[in-house]
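ARCHIVE CARD
Drawer: 12
Card no.: 0347
Subject: one protein chain, sequence and derived structure
Cross-reference: see card 0346
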Amino acid sequence: MKTRNIYILAGLFAFGAFFTGCDDDDDGKAVAITVKNATNLKEDIFGVVVTEDQPVQLNPFVMPESARAGAVSYHFAGEPTGAIDLSADGLITPKLTTSPTGDIPYPLGTDTIIVRVDDGSGTYVKYPIWVVSKIKLVTSITIQSGG
């Protein structure tokens, strides 16, 4: 029984030490940033999906709270492919549209962006942006008699 209590106490200590390291008021801690719009695109790849003709405003979340006062900037990672426009305030506007003929690729096109915290920490994240078609393909049709 004593061994079990020691493991429980050690676990609680480790848990407490983890959350102590996440103190919002400590300017010396590492800065982390995520984009709330990001979703799991496929195995361990997080990115943002935008539908043609439907702009998306990025919504970054920065930790610790003391780092939120600084600006966040948005940039293309490498040369843009032309799939999207990216504004200085994080508005993504898809530029691609679905072709009226032929197959509909998934995604229609991609670009990769960088979201950077401009507080001198050098913290940034990269996200692929997938532009997808607004057309929903029919997978089945049911015919009912009108009799």
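Annotation on reverse: The chain has one domain: 29-132. The first strand starts at residue 32 and ends at 35.
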